Structures are given as structure tokens and as C-alpha cells.
Amino acid sequence: MKNEYDQFHVGIHVFVIRDNKLLLGKRKNVYGEGSWGLPGGHLEQKEKMQDTAKRELMEETGMTANNFEFVCLVNDNREDQHYIQVGFMAKDAGGEPILKEPNKCEEWKWFDLNDLPQEVFVGAKDIIKAFQNKLNFIDR
After folding, report:
1. Residue closest to 129 by CA, chosen among 40, 30, 137, 93
2. Which residues contact 2 (CB under 8 A, 6 or more apart)?
3. How remote is the C-alpha of 61 from its chain's centroid?
4. Whose CB has fewer CB within 10 Å in the chain, the N or C terminal residue?
5. What DSSP letter does each residue of the chain carry, written as one string?
6. Residue 96 in contact with residue 18, Cβ under 8 Å?
7. By the 8 A CB rule, do 67 and 90 touch?
């Protein structure tokens, strides 16, 4: 019997932008391997969303930020899984990205906002689309 409260996950994505370039990481040994995604990860129980953004940015890139601004929310209801994706802008990101999780990320790279890669991670596609189109919500 199916549980009436089926589980879904909350993904937190961090936009780090410098000189009109967006920081993306190439995924490795994880779902969406070979595609490019934003720094981020899962919201943990009892954790504030901005704390997740701060933690994940540091864990994945070694970069620090204390000021996160809400960008958008996507109800990412795919055939194989259901996520609530939340995007935040790191307003004061400091440092340079380093490869802190080489088992999960092949490299960090800056992409011009007008020339992003074709192979964007499925969980980040609509978050990036919302950002580019100045939308704060996508429901699919």
C-alpha cells in the first residue's frame, strides 16, 4: 500500500556569479554524471535553507558566503522523482573554487551567462531557466 505522504526531497542550489560568469561543477560518480550543476545539495532535517546553501557552498567549493538572496523555487515533478528545488544567490561569495569533493565533481568552471553548457544537470535546468528569465517560481 502506498503511503499517502510520499516523500520528496528539497534541493538547494547556489548561484555564484562573478564578471557575468556563473560557477558550475561537472558531476562525477553521481546521478547526472557528466552534466554541469550549481553548487548545492539536500536540505537536512531541522536545517534552515540559507544554512544549507552556506554549508554546501563550503563543502563543495571551499568558498564562503554569509549573504544569500532567494532567487526562485521550482516544483520539479519528474517521472522518476519529485524535488522541490530552491535557488539562492551568494551575494558575497569569497575565495576561489577548489575541488573539495573530487569523488563527486570533476571540475569547477566559470561560464559566461550568455554561453552556458548544453549538458546542464536535470535538477538545475529549471532553476537556471528561472534565473535567466527573472521568474521566481516554476511549477511542473
Report:
1. 137
2. none
3. 12
4. N
5. ---TT---EEEEEEE-EETTEEEEEEE-SSTTTTSEE-SEEEPPTT--HHHHHHHHHHHHH--B-S-EEEEEEEEEE-SS-EEEEEEEEETT-BS----S-TTTEEEEEEEETTS--S-B-HHHHHHHHHHHTT-SEEE-
6. no
7. yes
Residue bearing cell 540559507 = 50
Task: Quote the pTM value.
Answer: 0.94
Give average pLDDT by consecutive 10-residue segment, the chain, 140 residues: 71 98 97 97 97 98 98 93 96 96 97 97 96 96
Place of cell 552556506: 54
Is the four-CA dihedral 110, 117, 13, 112 of positive or negative sign?
positive
